[in-house]
Amino acid sequence: MRASARAPTAMRLSGTPVVRRAGAVEAIGRSYARPVPTPPARPTPRRRYAPRAVAEFLSDAWITELDRAARAAPGLAALGTPARLVVEECVRHEGRDVVYHFVFESTGARVERGPASHADLSLVTDAATAWGLGTGTVGAQEAIVSGNLKIRGRAERLRAAGEALHAVHDVFEHVRDATTAPDDRAGDAGERR
Q: How many CB atoms lie within 10 A of CB 153?
């Protein structure tokens, strides 16, 4: 009989039977094999964790943080040159529309609550898609094809601002990192507008 086919407690070394005895190591191993009782589950509170330094996605505080970041980024002025560019976003969140808009002018950029009086471009989506677009987990083309993102207005204005648009993502990075995710990241995806 081959040594590998014998019971693990006995093996032959140089023709002499050696028997392994259960020692401290084996006893410890057996103690880990016992099932550990799990503590009873606590009910999850309905309130969200959002300390002062963290803005909740799509809240007024979040829009204020976007505005601060836009005003502090002189490179965004390139989006408003030679003509002013206004991009409005309408996001369906918790049964209501959250509307805000970006204004890019040669003097700088800002973000304001509410609809724009005249938007060059309007983006309409749900909270899950908006979160995905902002974090880079969803691409714009994917969102358009799936029907989760609608673009209205003068898209050529956006294409013309191409290079400057790449800076927008980096400008809002610290805001994105300090933002809590929406509860309905997956829930609103079914609501089409």
A: 16
- As given in the structure block, the two tokens for residue 193 are 């507008």
CB distance 109 to 79 below 8 Å: yes
The secondary structure element, H or E, covering residue 152 is strand 149-153
Query: What DSSP designation does 41 have?
Result: P
Helix (H) or strand (E) holding 3: none
Secondary structure element (H or E) that encloses residue 146, with its range: helix 140-146
pLDDT of the residue at 156: 82
Distance, in Å, from the CA atom of 159 to the CA atom of 154, rounded to the nearest integer, reads 9
Q: Averaged in consecutive runs of 10 residues, what is the pLDDT profile of the chain (193 residues)?
A: 50 50 45 51 47 79 94 84 91 96 93 96 96 91 96 84 67 87 54 37
Q: Which DSSP string do the residues of 103-127 spell out, in sequence order?
A: EEETTEEEEEES--SS-SEEEEEEH
The answer to whether 136 touches 176, Cβ cutoff 8 Å, is no
Q: How far, in Å, CA of 93 to CA of 100, rounded? A: 13
Go through the domains of the chain in sequence order and give each one's CATH number.
3-33 (no CATH), 55-190 (3.30.1050.10)
**Residue-level pLDDT at 75:** 81
pLDDT of residue 192: 35
Q: What is the pLDDT, as a whole number, of residue 55?
A: 87
Q: Whole-angstrom Cα distance, residue 145 to residue 147? A: 5
